[in-house]
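note to self: dont lose this again. the chain is below, predicted strucutre after it. 206 aa total, dont forget to put it in the shared folder this time
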Amino acid sequence: MRRILYVLLLMSPFMLSAQDNASAFLDKAVAKLKADAAVHMDYGYAVYDEDGKLLQEDTGVIRIDGDCYSLLMDNMKVWCDGKTQWSYMRDVNEIYVTSAASEEAQNLSPLNMMERFRKVSSRAMKSENGKVIVTLSNGSGEAEINKVVLRFDGSSNRLEGMSIYMTNAGRVEIELSNYAAKCKFAESSYVCPVSNFPGVEVVDMR
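---
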C-alpha cells in the first residue's frame, strides 16, 4: 500500500502521428505549469484493487513550484524542496526522508514523472466532451506503473484528473480542482516541519 501511495501524485497540464501530437501537447502543458508557478490545487485520490474495490481515499491540497512541491492530506503529507523529500505517514507516525533524486521522490514529482513518461512511453491523445485525454503507456510488464491517463480541460489545457494503473496492483484515481496560478508561498512551505509531529520517528533513507 505504501508503495502505491508513493506513486500518487499528480502530474500536470499538457497528420504527423498521434504520438507526436501527444508529445507536443505535453510539452505545452509542462511549459504552462512552469509559467503558472507557483500553483495551488485541491487534491483528492482513491486507491482501488485489481477487482475495483475501494481500498483507501483522502483529500487535501497540492502546491507545485518547479522541482519544489508539497502534498498535504489527512493520512499522508509530503514536502520536497528540490533537494530533499519528506513523507509523513500518519498511520505509523513516521517520516521518511529521501533525496529528491531518489525513485520515490521522482514518482511524486509531477514534472519529473511527466517528463520521464513522455520519453519512454507510447503516447495517444484524443478530445472528448470538451476534454483532452492523453494516455501514456509504459510498454514494459516489469515496470511498477503500467499506464497513466491524464485528463485536461480542453480550453485551458490544465490538468483536471488522472488515472494511474499499477502493474498487477489496481489503480489510483486523482482529481484536481480550484487551480490557482502565480501564488506566493514561503520557501518553508516545501520543508517538513518535523517539530509539528510530537513523538514521530524519522527514518532517513538517503
